[in-house]
Amino acid sequence: MTSTAASTIIYGPMKTRRFGTAMFFDITAPQTNLVVERGSAIPRASVIVTSAARRIIDHSKAGDKVESIVVIGSQENPTQHPDIKEITENLRALRGKWYARAKLSIVSDTPEVSSSAVTALHMYDNLLQTYEWGSTKVFTATTGVKGTELAGLTKILGSFENLVIRTRFYRGDLDNSSEREVKGWIKRLLEMGPREIEVIKGSLPKSKKTVSAITKTREQQILDEIGESTGLPVNVNDHESLPG
Hints:
Elements: E1 10-16, E2 20-26, H1 45-61, E3 68-72, H2 84-98, E4 103-108, H3 115-121, E5 126-130, H4 136-143, H5 149-157, E6 163-167, E7 170-172, H6 179-192, E8 196-201, E9 211-213, H7 216-230, E10 234-238
Parallel strand pairs: 2-3, 3-4, 4-5, 5-6, 6-8, 8-10
Antiparallel strand pairs: 1-2, 7-9
């Protein structure tokens, strides 16, 4: 009989381009026991918090530098963890005591934000949220979620002062780089009012349809349009794989 080993929950500290020296907490890393419920592989909050406390305290006492504490999810979006609020409160407390200058961030790729996660997400210094759709057509084609959900997502995200919108631009059978799509995306951007835009190069959506990167000329046109239309800071970063 073959057993599957539990996946790693904590990575780092490690140097990254986006977060500086960071510790990553994969709160949906599959586990073989001490899970949230029967049939699930998501670790209980107690497992995550106990592991986090041990590692954070050990690294702090050893004098190790940590600039960011980042919550991620390898199997499911971290916002889907049923105990996201409890986990976040404990990480904030640990950060405050042992790495007071570190930023607490969460990376969310889901096109949905559950009402139960909203309170927790307000506790982060940075909510890095993927949002790359200018129309309900592209939203549904890319995510599989009903187009009617896009307006609700936009409204919820607009409530966060810590919002950083992450986006990729691509073309092909799925195309969010056309003039019409970009204008629609910028319109929704203005509704949300994020503090920052992060354009990620070198990454494409997983899709059965054919997609490819846009040209450098088109990319620069879009970047110019974002700056002129929103006045928001725009950072362009090469794709950097997260642990997990």
